[in-house]
Amino acid sequence: MERELALEFVRVTEAAALASARLMGRGNKNEADQAAVSAMRAMFDTVQMEGKVMIGEGEKDEAPMLYIGEKLGAGNGPKLDVAVDPVEGTNLVAKGLPNALAVLAIAPEGCLLHAPEAYYMNKIATGPIGRDVISIELSATENLNRLADAMQKDVSDLVAVILDRPRHKNLIQEVREAGARVKLITDGDVAAAVAAAQPNSSVDIAMGIGGAPEGVLAAAALKCLGGKMEGRLLPIDPSKFKSKEEINWDAHKGEPILTMDDLAKGDDVIFAATGITDGGMLRGVRFTKEIAQTQSVVMRSQTGTVRTVDANHRLDKKPEVFQKLVGYKK
């Protein structure tokens, strides 16, 4: 991929964040998501590429835009796989809570995992220091002890981030009994996994079962950051769990381990995200009458470069179609 494309992808996540942020705290997560989807798709159409959605809003019959298999881009340029989450944390936007992001990952054709049969993914993620010591096959206690040794810390110094779900009751208890601290989150496990690999983050490791699409996006980011992630897919099988919240913790153990190269192959992966609401990773969108401010991050695995992009958007100078997408009124 041409390196100039990285900035084009930031423009895509910026548009999604601007559109969704207008609806922050309004209590309608579906409306916020649809606004981001429309803005993201429109901006993708200006990018010189031949893209195909591998991770999107759902199958074609269920999602009017950004469905799995949809073609994106201006129709020329490199052939690319696309993973998108126009609003990572729709509930966070609806309630005005921290850490909502507009997120995408891009890789050459054939490099991003598509798992239409998967409903959830059991995941473990950490930064470069823990890359050679953690494993999803080990217990939470053993992973924490090994990571603490690698980081030259006491286990009590570690912070594990886990989705606050009934299915994680035993995991949370084990982490606490091992002596580590626990950061529970209501949504947004892409941001959580990325935080585990960032050097200045307060998070050391991410654990637990979350969405499979989010797993692919997180793996793309961790590949750029030099971290590690492993996962196991939980196929859609009603016999495996009673409900979304009561997953059989052991149901995944017969599934193969997915490494980062299974989730995001190759050495040319790009990850981009723009903050919608304020969070530990990125600042949220700020609006004035004519100007909107965004903060984004773009990473590239080929060079290991991580750039933070602060942008001021003169909404009065944007095309009318863009103004409509982001809710600008003269």
| Record field, number of beta strands | 13
**SSE succession:** HHEEEHEEHEHEHEHEHEEEEH
CATH topology of the largest domain: Fructose-1,6-Bisphosphatase, Chain A, domain 1
Main β-sheet: number of strands, strand sense, barrel status? 8 strands, mixed
Number of helices: 9
Second-tier CATH architecture of the largest domain:
2-Layer Sandwich
Q: Uncertain runs with pLDDT below 50, 5 residues or more?
A: none
**Quick one: overall form?**
globular
CATH class of the largest domain: Alpha Beta
Can you summarize this structure?
Helices cover 28% and strands 27% of the residues. It has helices spanning 5-21, 29-44, 90-95, 140-151, 169-178, 189-195, 212-225, 260-263, 320-325, and strands spanning 50-55, 71-72, 79-88, 101-108, 118-126, 159-163, 181-185, 205-211, 228-235, 270-275, 286-287, 291-300, 305-314.
Blueprint of the fold:
Elements: H1 5-21, H2 29-44, E1 50-55, E2 71-72, E3 79-88, H3 90-95, E4 101-108, E5 118-126, H4 140-151, E6 159-163, H5 169-178, E7 181-185, H6 189-195, E8 205-211, H7 212-225, E9 228-235, H8 260-263, E10 270-275, E11 286-287, E12 291-300, E13 305-314, H9 320-325
Parallel strand pairs: 1-3, 6-7, 6-8
Antiparallel strand pairs: 1-2, 3-4, 4-10, 5-8, 5-9, 10-12, 11-12, 12-13
Helix pairs in contact: 1-2, 4-5, 6-7
